[in-house]
Amino acid sequence: MDGPFVPFRQFVLKVHSRCDLACDHCYVYEHADQSWRGRPKVISDRTVVRAVARIAEHVDRHALDRVHVVLHGGEPLLAGPVRLGRVAAELREQLGGRCDLDLRVHTNGVLLDDRVLDVFAEHDVKVGVSLDGDRVANDRHRRYADGRSSYDRVIAAVELLRRRPELYAGLLCTIDVANDPTAVYRALAALEPPRVDFLLPHATWDAPPARPTPTAYADWLIEIFDVWLAEGARVPVRLFESVIRTSRGDSSLTESLGLEPSDLVVIETDGGYEQADSLKTAFDGAPATGLDVFGHDLDEVARHTGILARRQGLGGLCDTCRACPVVDSCGGGLYAHRYRTGSAFANPSVYSADLLKLITHIRGRTTMPTHAVPYGTIDALAGGYGDDRDVSCLAESQRTLRRGLLAGVRAHGAEAGWDLLTRLDSEHRDAVDAVLDHPYVRAWAIESLRDAAHAGHLANIAAAAAVRAGAKARVVVRAVDGMVCLPTLGALEVGPVAGAETGALSQALLLVEDGRFALEGRPDAPWHPVRRLVAGDFSVTLEDTDPYRDCHGHRAAGRLSEDDVAAWQRLFAEAWTLIESDHPAYAPGLRAGLSTLTPLTPPEGGGDASSTARHAFGAVAAALPKDPVTLALLLIHEFQHVKLGAVLDIVDLYDESDTRRYYAPWRPDPRPLEGLLQGTYAHVAVADFWRRRRHSAPEPGEVQFARWRELTAQAIETLDGSGSMTSLGARFVAGMRRSVGPWLKESVSEDAAVAAAALSHRHHTAWVKQQS
Q: Is the pTM of this model over 0.85?
């Protein structure tokens, strides 16, 4: 059988072949394949060493940069902590220097204790736990052989993991449509898992699943999906995310969906290689290969006919599946679920009607992919910080949002450059993403949806992507006030249109090839490249060419002189050094999300000016401040708005029907609830900045810290008392309180406290007078 050679990247290593539960839906013990009866109960050290050597050999041969190994069973914890430690140590020792090893264990949880978790912590083993929902749902199937419940012990295990979140991988739930879907989801979500997997119970056409209605499984999952979506998708659900990802052309996160070739192999306790465990539900011997770690390398396994059969993609599906409108997401469903005596696996999934309905529903509810924000990310951001992973989660959601807006602009009539951009997106997606990630692409898209006259800038975006991709293209680009902007690259000067007003538009033909570009007939047109500010290994764009940068509520500066650029470079380098040394908790998030610094025109009469724009994620705008301390504060303060704006793009933190105005102690005017939330979140960082700064600069640090900790704490209570925060918003407010609360107990000088109180009183008195 022909099929692509795909190296294995996922390895399921069976360390114990027996189980201490008697789950009646288990595919290992309750389905057609009973090969477990003839295998060793526990894997030997000799088999472990040989299996790991085979994986290492495969990694070297195919230069794999990352592999995933899951310790599995039966119940893997029956192998005991000592043996599990030896297995993990062997894997880390042999693979650690060769590739990035993602090492996990999947368990029913009943034997999980601190001793076992200490072993897993030593070897960085993430733990996934099987749990089917609340007590009623879980005990329907997951019981001991004598009928006793396993629920309390599993919940105790999950609570241990919640106290050691670095080890907590997630929860796996097998669906039973007899259970209440919302109750199941809420029970799982309450345990704050990093991820939830919902699994269709293994079944075939010969042994179909219990089905009270024709699409019972879709209906069950749809009820959960609608709740999940309404609550901001805060708990990542692999099944839903995979449908969303495959609907936009990305890879699936699970082997049960998508058209990607399988890259998984199982190694049993006797060293035998097998195909995916799910095949045990088809017929006795279905997953067997006849190969083992002692006599065969993994390349031989990859060429096995059974493995190749699962790597045919669309060509390996039956005619019914190939004609299905959702085949790009469904991929025919799980291979094992297609089995029928007489036609083997050349059938649709026994769940095909469910998959069609579920995928169609998800696509109908999501005009663009939905991004989950894990509780851990919400909590980290709410505290005022958030590391590179948390901010990258926000950045990914912004990328998706920009793509959706781009499609919306095209639907409103933007055609120039669309075909080029879609071709580049297929062939050079990284280059397209690099341009679409520019903060002012979204600002342009929003403006274009308001006024179609701006839509022509789409061609400039496509041209910039073509330059980055090294592609060949002829693009009719747009000039604004005599400047052709290529986002992320710079601007070509073509000269103003004679007699035209400010904002006048004109066109020019741009020729692009091999990363070079020129205007037809104007090869000598002056080029104004984007400049960058550098501090060590961190760099941001100094944006003074993009026409859509003027969206910050303050007038953007024009093209900077070289002296101005040098001044910005000097201050930026010093400010970043200060952030890394004195405020290191903010540095990872800034590294991951701050891409652009936009100069503003200094205010008349002097003073500082800084701003962010809701539709320009990644950009901070500021007039050149007087010193690096001020710039460091502006960057930290304004980036809080960047983060919170991105959070609000994904989830609802407050009731938008609340039209009241609230006192904000940093503003002369009353603020709507979102404005108060934004200001409070920014001032968590302001208070923290002066909290640390006061040790090296007591004046004005002491007074500023004393003032802003009190006022920020008051604003937090105003938010909490508004009665308009959603459940997730209340959680966010509680996170801010957890950070600020302890600061109220820190000592400050009496003089600083008095001065801070006087400033606060003066502000509030002026505000009250203004309202009267």
A: no
